[in-house]
Write a structure and sequence with these properties.
The chain has 142 residues and is α/β, with parallel strands linked by helices. It has helices spanning 17-34, 80-93, 110-123, and strands at residues 49-50, 60-65, 71-73, 76-78, 99-104, 127-130, 133-134. It has a domain at 49-134: Nucleotidyltransferase, domain 5, CATH 3.30.420.270. The model has no long low-confidence stretch (mean pLDDT 80).
Length: 142
């Protein structure tokens, strides 16, 4: 049986219309997805800029506090009791000592931060750090 060797797969001109339709569908999808609201915390995180503050290379646990003194742990609003038990569970499941990183709204009082630190200490976390921004480095002059 002989097969023709000179057959072309594409016969005729290249059709651009289907590719253009797919391209415009992708553009419309990307434009509409940018308009969707991003769900997150309503915390005004404007931490102070600081230099030479100690960081941590140990595993860390993040807790956020908003202006209404609500606690956020693992992206969920929790009560103090739920936060205490959640932190205790994380400490039990961790092999290394944990560090608490606090992301606090700028209107949170010192008493509330201290209360959160004591909750973490009761759960077994000994080190608590406040989230700050590193100071921007100056670019060398040319």
């Amino acid at each position: 049986m002989k097969f023709p060797r000179n057959e072309k797969i594409l016969r005729g001109p290249f059709e651009i219309a289907p590719f253009a339709a797919v391209f415009f569908l992708l553009v419309i999808f990307l434009m509409l997805s940018a308009l969707l609201p991003v769900q997150g915390l309503h915390v005004q995180l404007q931490p102070p800029v600081a230099d030479n503050l100690p960081g941590t290379d140990k595993p860390s646990v993040a807790v956020a506090v908003d202006s209404s003194n609500r606690f956020y742990f693992k992206n969920q609003i929790v009560t103090e009791a739920q936060l205490q038990s959640g932190l205790s569970n994380v400490v039990k499941n961790s092999r290394a000592p944990l560090t608490l990183v606090i992301h606090a709204d700028k209107s949170i009082s010192y008493d509330q931060l201290l209360h959160l630190t004591l909750l973490a200490r009761n759960a077994g976390i000994q080190i608590a750090l406040l989230a700050t921004l590193p100071r921007a480095t100056d670019s060398p002059d040319k």
